[in-house]
Amino acid sequence: MNKGEAQATAWNADTQLDGNSLLYLEEMYERYLQEPASIPASWQHYFDALPAVNGHERDTRHSLVKDYFRAYAAKPQAVAAPVAGSVDMEHERKQVKVLQLINAYRFLGHFHAKTNPLDENTPAFVKELTLAYHSLSEADLDTTFNTGSLVAPDQLTLREIIAQLEATYCGSIGVQYMHTTSTEQKRWVQQRLESVRSTPTFSPAEKLEILDRLTAAEGLERYLHTNYVGQKRFSLEGGESLIPMLNTLIQHGGSLGAQEMVIGMAHRGRLNVLVNVLGKAPALLFGEFEGKYANNGDRTGDVKYHMGFASDMMTPGGPLHVAMAFNPSHLEIVGPVVQGAVRARQDRWDDAGGDKIIPVVLHGDAAFAGQGVNMEMLQMADTRGYRTYGTIHIVINNQVGFTTSTAADARSTYYCTDIAKMVDSPVFHVNGDDPEAVVLITQIAFDFRAKFDKDVVIDLVCYRRHGHNEADEPSATQPVMYRKIRALPTTRELYARRLTGEGLITAEDAQERVQRCRQQLTSGAPTVPHLLEKGEVQNPHPVKWKRFVDNAWDMPVDTTISADAVKRLGTKLTEYPADFKLNSRVARIVADRKKMAAGEQLMDWGFCENLAYASLIDEGYPIRLSGEDCGRGTFFHRHAVFHEQESGATFVPLQHLSEAQMPFVVIDSLLSEEAVLAFEYGYATTEANTLVIWEAQFGDFANCAQVVIDQFISSGEQKWGRLCGLVMLLPHGFEGQGPEHSSARLERYLQLCAQHNMQVCVPSTPAQAFHMLRRQMVRDYRTPLIVMTPKSLLRHPLAVNSMEDLTERGFQNVIDEIDVLDPLKVTRLVMCSGKVYYDLLEQRRKAGLDDVALVRIEQIYPFPEADMNVILDRYPNIAVNVWCQEEPLNQGAWLSIQPALRLVLGGMARLDVVSRPASASPAVGSAKVHAAQQQELVNNALGIRVES
């Protein structure tokens, strides 16, 4: 068969080939070069007939060439180019296989790593890590190969290469990093691990420091176990290496210039961390166990393993402030709170690269995999509004969830840390019973974060020596696991034996350290060696909260601004670059705002809200506004951000008020409520002088963040004494848009109100919103503000204000009747909040009623009793008092406001309620039914009888 016949035969073998068949042909040719008999005879004949390559009968396999260039890029001097037809062709083939084996260890070596203290160190079978998989055998072990990109001498025997790979990737440290998209980051990790074979070399002093930290960790747990029998402490036993790990983070971080570190963690091991890392005096902890500090005054307080703490540590780089965030039992929810607190500190320090302020978040293994807030938090990592330049995540992986859940029930992923892969974070798995490996990987993780400003995860694989709490019996549900645990020596014992074997200490020395630790605990003095005295370090960026303590919500405050300020700032809100083309609708809104600023047109909601921000910025208050569509506003009213219609460029007028103005930050957030609201809470509890606002796209959606509302916003001050001025804007109003777009669940917030813990307002005019926002900052009072913001009122023709409403009067907790009525003729008083007022007003005017007065309660909690009494005194002849609400009877304000109304009305006064009927759902799905309900509700409230 000649060349032409061979080609014809091959093409006839597959008549479907065309210009898109390149990959198929490439694969067929590659198989031919490797093993001709593996392809059809027609193709063999075709390729046999191809001309010789550089005088050789057969071409070099293309995969060998590709692998050559990969290896050459990493280590040019170590790799020889493959040559077609060379006598070394077989060696070159094996050379490529060796390079593939090296890569396999980098990808999959963690499956063979000895990271689990409870395993018998029998690795899982991973075929990609076998010689046979790569067409190698034991006969090749003593053959010398180029090491390619391996951080090693240029040439080693295969046996030596495997030994280095095993030491690096299959010892006490297992690492997952090859999933990251950055070649630079992958090479950095390879350099750090492969250069030392994942084997630390610590000085004797450093080793003794590790032993002392383990001794302190174990000593505290045993002391508590002995002296406070049966009391919950959520022991760290089994995970004691966490203490030298955190100590390393502080000391190593401080040496690299860190100034503050914020730590968040749940209750497991928290008491140990407070004493042995942050330096809380054991005497204080013991007093809490003994109930000595149970009196919190009017505050409820909290259990000891939820409490926060702060201290200053001396490090090689100078003092470092360490803060532990307060946290409820809702485990992972503290993560985004820490992120917000860190971002606030970074903004305060002008820490543009995140080098000075370090976030550290500790997780449980089952919680890290199972709690959705972690996905939301990780998704924030590199976003503009929430970035903290890398968080160090530590998973205290005790391999069991609450009491009974194991990996088979706790997750669908192989590792509990696999969620971190979605943001390209490297994951370092480390055996908790090898504290030197723990310290090494902690240093590497910190350095990775410092180098690349990215999240990094340390999976501290350990165990839990006791049950979920110390009264629990874990072997009832985990008999096999706890049989292993009871047979294990403690981490401190293992490490003490190791140092004894190295001749660094004697067994007597180790025991003496245990005794010294116990004596120190008995004395009650702090156990941390690098702790600085309170007041020894002056914070260069202090935030003074004292002026906000014990102040009353109704303290007098002037929220008005001058007419000149309205004109000057209002005009600034309408200015933008000359070459900036606005959307036509936005351009009309801006044109109207120019008239509002000049006093030529009544002011609407969007103008007054933006003017409130401008006036606060002008007076020295930074503002941070975030939410899922807050730049524009879900209902097209705010337009704090202008968008150029050709280029897509943006312009924020509030950022261009003056050259030396305070910052205005507006963030269209990721589609998250829980994590974003938690972040903003953390920010607001850290920054007293910044107006921090979170806006829900619809008020109903705040349901997704209920944990944050219940456990932090409503109760943080009562439990932990944490003041917070966070504002929540929740669009609310029954507009016929169905159950999920009507109610911000006002009733839930009111149910949470007590002891003046929150403010709940329903402003009904733009001027009220203006003064309410200004009042939140200009008075020396910091309590969360929950606002039922409007939807249709944003453009309601009656919901407008004149300039005088901003310049002559402030926020009104209660608004009296605005029409001219004779108070003596009024026999029916209708009280309400929000949008329904305008429906009542229009219907009353239409019906010509002059004996019905309408009163708006703008602040529902704390209830403005004094303001209500002033208004009630104007109407001596009231026969019927009505509370009218759009919401169903079992929802809205009625059940919470009723006692306060009865108190001001007097016990004998008649008080009726008009609402929708009690309902399991907030609203009907039909706009037509809604309209009929609304009309009936308004008529009933006004006492209008309609013939059926």
From TrEMBL:
<dbReference type="InterPro" id="IPR032106">
    <property type="entry name" value="2-oxogl_dehyd_N"/>
</dbReference>
<keyword id="KW-0786">Thiamine pyrophosphate</keyword>
<dbReference type="InterPro" id="IPR029061">
    <property type="entry name" value="THDP-binding"/>
</dbReference>
<dbReference type="Pfam" id="PF00676">
    <property type="entry name" value="E1_dh"/>
</dbReference>
<dbReference type="GO" id="GO:0005829">
    <property type="term" value="C:cytosol"/>
</dbReference>
<keyword id="KW-0560">Oxidoreductase</keyword>
<comment type="function">
    <text>E1 component of the 2-oxoglutarate dehydrogenase (OGDH) complex which catalyzes the decarboxylation of 2-oxoglutarate, the first step in the conversion of 2-oxoglutarate to succinyl-CoA and CO(2).</text>
</comment>
<dbReference type="InterPro" id="IPR001017">
    <property type="entry name" value="DH_E1"/>
</dbReference>
<dbReference type="GO" id="GO:0006099">
    <property type="term" value="P:tricarboxylic acid cycle"/>
</dbReference>
<dbReference type="GO" id="GO:0045252">
    <property type="term" value="C:oxoglutarate dehydrogenase complex"/>
</dbReference>
<dbReference type="GO" id="GO:0004591">
    <property type="term" value="F:oxoglutarate dehydrogenase (succinyl-transferring) activity"/>
</dbReference>
<dbReference type="InterPro" id="IPR011603">
    <property type="entry name" value="2oxoglutarate_DH_E1"/>
</dbReference>
<dbReference type="InterPro" id="IPR042179">
    <property type="entry name" value="KGD_C_sf"/>
</dbReference>
<dbReference type="InterPro" id="IPR031717">
    <property type="entry name" value="ODO-1/KGD_C"/>
</dbReference>
<dbReference type="Pfam" id="PF16078">
    <property type="entry name" value="2-oxogl_dehyd_N"/>
</dbReference>
<feature type="domain" description="Transketolase-like pyrimidine-binding">
    <location>
        <begin position="603"/>
        <end position="796"/>
    </location>
</feature>
<protein>
    <recommendedName>
        <fullName>2-oxoglutarate dehydrogenase E1 component</fullName>
        <ecNumber>1.2.4.2</ecNumber>
    </recommendedName>
</protein>
<comment type="similarity">
    <text>Belongs to the alpha-ketoglutarate dehydrogenase family.</text>
</comment>
<dbReference type="GO" id="GO:0030976">
    <property type="term" value="F:thiamine pyrophosphate binding"/>
</dbReference>
<dbReference type="InterPro" id="IPR005475">
    <property type="entry name" value="Transketolase-like_Pyr-bd"/>
</dbReference>
<dbReference type="Pfam" id="PF02779">
    <property type="entry name" value="Transket_pyr"/>
</dbReference>
<dbReference type="Pfam" id="PF16870">
    <property type="entry name" value="OxoGdeHyase_C"/>
</dbReference>
